Amino acid sequence: MPHLLKSLIVFLTVQVVAAAVNLILPPDMSKAQKASAVALDRNGMWLRALPVDDGRWRIRADLQRTDKSFVHHLLKVEDERFYLHHGVDPVALVRAFSSNMQAGSVVSGGSTITMQTARLLSPKDRTYLSKLIEVFRAVQLEARYTKREILSIYLTLAPYGGNLEGVRAASLSYFGHEPESLTLGEQALLIALPQAPEARRPDRNPKAALNARNEVLLRLQDKGAVTPAVAQEAMEEPLVTRRAAFPALAWHAAGRLARQVRGLDATVITTIDAPLQARLEALARQTAAAQGLNSSAAIMVVDIKTRAVRASVGSAGLDRAGGWIDMMQRVRSPGSSLKPFIYGIGFEDGVIAPETRLMDVPTRFGDYQPENFDRVFHGDVSAKDALVNSLNVPAVAVLNRIGAEGFSSRLEGAGIHLIRPKAGLKEAGLALALGGAGIKLSDLASLYAALGDNGVVKPLAWTEAEARLHTLQPGSRLMTQDAAQKTLAILRETPAPAGRLPGALMKSANRPAYKTGTSYGYRDALAVGVAGGHAILVWTGRPDGGARADMTGRDAAAPLLFDVVDQLQAPAQLPNVLTPDRPPEALKEMKTVNAGPVILFPPDGATVFVEVRARGARGDFTLKRGLKLSARGKGLQWYVNGEALPKADGAPLWYPAQEGFYDVAVVDGEDRARHVKVRVKAVD
C-alpha cells in the first residue's frame, strides 16, 4: 500500500509539474497569428494581398479550399499516423533514431506534422536538444488545438522558397491558381519543397526540384496511394521554372480594405466584381494614354440597390504619373456636376418646375457674376433646358433662391462633405453651383447613387457584409422621390458625346442619365450618371492638379462613361443573319472527311467528377454509377490505360476505382483510334 501511495504521489507530482511548465512556458504563437491580409472579390476571386514582415507572403491556409487529395498525400508522406498520435509518433522516432545511429549523423528526424509545426513556430538548429524541445512543444500544441487547426497552421507557415510561406502563396506563385484543385505533379512538388525550400526552388534549382518531386511520387507509389501508371504520368508533367506575380486588381481599394483586417484569418470579401474591375482598368489605361503623358483616369461603379462598389479604379496604372494615388479618395472640384442636386432641391422646395422659364443673361449676384462656359448667353430658357445644356447663370440663380448655405447643409446632413475655400465664403457659396467647393470623388458617386434611389443617401458598401447591412438601413433623404425622378428624367436628355449615338440599350429607361463637369483651368474632367441600376463616376485629369488645355468633362470624360455603360449592360454580340442564297451544286452539301472515330465524352483535358458509394483503405473507391462514354463511329471498342472495357449494347460504362489521370481511347472497326487524357476526382 505505501508503494502504491508513493507511486500515486510521484504520478501526481509529475502531472502538476508538467501542467505548471505548460502554463509558464506556453508555445509562442505570435508567428501563427500574423498572416498576409487578403482581399477577395464578391465571388471569392483574388484581388490583392499584403505581405507580412520582411516582405514575406504568408497567406492563411483554408482547408475548405485546399485539394483534399493533396492533404491526403501530404499525410501519407510526412505523417501517416497524424490522426492517431498525440503530437509524437514513437514508431517514427525509433525508426529515425536507428537510421541516425547507423549513419553516424542526423539523417532522419522522425518528425510529425505537429513537431514540424512546433519547429516552424520557433525555429532552432537541428540538434537532439532541439528535437526534445519540439517533442514538448508538439504535445503542448496537441493539447491546445484540434488536428485540423494544427494542419492549417502548418500549411500556413511551411516554407516554399524565397519569401513564400504557406501552400496558398506557393500555389498562387508557382502555378497561378489557388490550391483548390492540384495535379498530382503539383501536389508532389508542394510536398517536397518545405523539407529543403531553398535547395529545391524550381525557379532557381529546377533539376533538384524535379528530382525531389519525383521522389515524392515514388514514395506515394510505394505506399499504395497511387498506381505506377498514375505516378509515371505525373512525372511527365512539365515542371514550373519561374514564379508568377501575385494578382493586384483594384490595387488601391483592395489594399486599403486588406489593411483593415487583422489576425490569422486575415481575409476580407469585398463587393468588387473582379472581371468588371479588370475591364475598367484597361479602359482607364487606354483613356489616360490617349489624353497625354501626365494624364490619369479613375472610375467607380456602384450598385444602387445595395450601394455595393462593384468597381473602383483609383488611377490609370501604377506606372503612370500619380498612379499610386487613389483618386477616388481625393478631394477634387466637381465642376458643374452638382447642378442636378441644386435643381432637384429647387423642385422639392417649389422654387422651380422643369418648365419654369429662367433668364440666361449677364447677371450679378452681389460681387459674383458667373458666365457660361462658352461665354454665350441664351436668354429665356426652361429649367429643363438650362440643366441639359449646363447653363451657369440659371443654376446660380436657383442656388441663390434655395440658399447656398441651405444647400450645403442638406448635403452635410446626408453625410456628404464639401470642402470650401479658406477665403471669400460668400462668393464661394454661390460658386458651389460651378465647382467652387471641393468634394471627395467617392462622395460624388454616392450622391448620384442617391439620385438613382429616389433621393435617399446611404454610405457606400465596400464589403459584402456592409452591402447586406445597407439594404436594411433607411438612409438619409436628400430630396423627395418626385424631385429625384424629375431630375433623372431631365438628365436622360443630355446629349450623347460626339460620335456616340445611343444604342438599343441606351433608349428609354436604360439611357444614361448623366452630367459632366469641368473644373477651373481644365484640371478635372468629370462625367457622373445613373444607368442600368448603377451609379457611375468617371474622372480624368492630372493627379497633381495641373491644368490641361481644352480637356472638358464632355470631351474627356463622357466618352469613357459611355464605354463603362457598354461594359455594364452590353449584351452578347450576335452575328448578322446570313441571307439564304442558292449555292453552286457542288457546295449544296459539305462533305466530311472520314478520319476515324470522334470522342464526344469525356472531352480531352477535362476533370470528371464521380460520386463515391464507398471508399477503401488504400484510396480506392466504389462508384454510385458509372461514367457513360460516348463517341461517333462504327464498331467501337473502348480502352482505359490500355485495358479494354466490356462491350455493351448501349453506351459503355466506365467505373474508375481511384482518383488520378487516365488515358481513354476508342478504336473503330478499321483500327483507327482516338485518345483523350482526363482527370478523375471523387466527391462523396
Automatic annotation (TrEMBL):
Pathway membership: Cell wall biogenesis; peptidoglycan biosynthesis
Gene3D superfamilies: Biosynthetic peptidoglycan transglycosylase-like, DD-peptidase/beta-lactamase superfamily
Enzyme class: transferase
SUPFAM superfamilies: beta-lactamase/transpeptidase-like, Lysozyme-like
Keywords, sorted A to Z: Carboxypeptidase, Glycosyltransferase, Hydrolase, Multifunctional enzyme, Protease, Transferase
Descriptive protein name: peptidoglycan glycosyltransferase
GO cellular component: outer membrane-bounded periplasmic space
Pfam family, one: Transgly
Residue ranges annotated for the Glycosyl transferase family domain, each copy included: 54-220
Residue span, Penicillin-binding protein transpeptidase domain: 298-521
Residues covered by the Penicillin-binding C-terminal domain: 594-677
GO biological process: peptidoglycan biosynthetic process; proteolysis
InterPro entries associated with the record: Beta-lactam/transpept-like, Glyco_trans_51, Glycosyltr_51/Transpeptidase, Lysozyme-like_dom_sf, PBP_1c, PBP_C, PBP_transglycosylase, PCN-bd_Tpept
NCBIfam families: PBP_1c
